[in-house]
């Protein structure tokens, strides 16, 4: 908490809208609201504040955190940093040249009004944002996209993301691992559908164990911040802001070696329907690259 106070102090202590509240009280109030997923009325009563004050405080703290996003959420840039991340994934079960695990997760939001409301309803029938995350082997969030509507396919989010363009431009000397909802490319490996050979089966097993880091990342985040697990009742604009702020807090906790033993077991999400476009998404060069990789590494 002291680290977060120091991080955002200059951003929130000078604002007249702070209403004379100390930086410590504002940070504690925001953290309690996000972590315990309390109704804002309850959090307001606990801290002796109005519900509107809670809303203002959470937004103020989130804005201060989000302004530091580039400092805490970033892909490894230097060769040395990239090799450290690659080494972390390789230590899981020997899968080489992986720089990130990618997937999307749904964060529940209140019903959106207007003509666009239907586009926020996901396959499970509730309104959500479909949030794309890339994490490393330590469950640290390296890239996040938190503005797509719940009905959007994972593959489309990646296709139109900046992180894909960076891989296309050759910025990284390793690849991503994704599930069957993504298209197979030179820089994003997916599981082999209907594996036949021993090597393909071995590849799939290693792929699943290594890619499981992203499922664990989602599980840890949603248990650490219950609002991500149970949903938000605030405005859509604030939800997008809060998701980024909470990703930063998650990374800070990892950097400070905060234990996660208290968290409940991770429940993997069902992405079965994401496989419909499977074959049309795969590139020929990706298929050949993966085939050679399996033959030489497994």
Automatic annotation (TrEMBL):
UniProt keyword list: Cytoplasm, Hydrolase, Metal-binding, Nuclease, Nucleus
CC cofactor: a divalent metal cation
Top-level taxon of origin: Eukaryota
GO MF annotation terms: hydrolase activity; metal ion binding; nuclease activity
InterPro entries: HARBI1-like (IPR045249), HARBI1_animal (IPR026103), HARBI1_dom (IPR027806)
UniProt domain DDE Tnp4: residue ranges: 102-251
Subcellular location: Cytoplasm; Nucleus
Cellular component annotations (GO), alphabetically ordered: cytoplasm; nucleus
Keyword hit for NAD: no
Pfam family, one: DDE_Tnp_4
Function, as annotated: Transposase-derived protein that may have nuclease activity. Does not have transposase activity.
Membership in a protein family: Belongs to the HARBI1 family.
Protein name: Putative nuclease HARBI1
């Amino acid at each position: 908490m002291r680290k977060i106070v120091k991080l955002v102090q200059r951003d929130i202590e000078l604002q007249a809208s702070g209403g004379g509240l100390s930086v410590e009280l504002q940070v504690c109030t925001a953290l309690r609201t996000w972590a315990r997923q309390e109704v804002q009325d309850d959090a307001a009563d606990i801290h002796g504040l109005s519900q509107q004050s809670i809303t203002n405080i959470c937004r103020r703290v989130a804005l201060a955190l989000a302004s530091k996003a580039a400092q805490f959420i970033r892909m490894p840039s230097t060769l040395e940093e990239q090799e450290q991340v690659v080494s972390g994934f390789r230590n899981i079960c020997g899968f080489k040249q992986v720089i990130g695990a990618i997937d999307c997760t749904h964060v529940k939001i209140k019903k959106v009004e207007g003509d666009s409301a239907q586009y926020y309803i996901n396959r499970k029938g509730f309104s959500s944002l479909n949030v794309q995350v890339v994490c490393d082997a330590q469950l640290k969030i390296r890239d996040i996209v938190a503005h797509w509507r719940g009905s959007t396919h994972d593959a489309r989010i990646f296709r139109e993301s900046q992180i894909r363009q960076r891989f296309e431009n050759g910025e990284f000397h390793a690849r991503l691992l994704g599930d069957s909802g993504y298209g197979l490319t030179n820089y994003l490996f997916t599981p082999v559908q209907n594996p036949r050979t021993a090597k393909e089966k071995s590849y799939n097993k290693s792929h699943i164990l290594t890619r499981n880091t992203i499922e664990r990342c989602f599980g840890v985040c949603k248990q650490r911040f219950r609002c991500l697990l149970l949903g938000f009742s605030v405005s859509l604009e604030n939800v997008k802001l809060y998701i980024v702020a909470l990703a930063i807090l998650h990374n800070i906790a990892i950097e400070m070696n905060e234990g996660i033993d208290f968290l409940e077991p991770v429940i993997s999400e069902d992405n079965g329907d994401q496989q419909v476009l499977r074959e049309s998404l795969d590139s020929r060069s990706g298929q050949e690259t993966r085939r050679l990789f399996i033959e030489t590494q497994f």
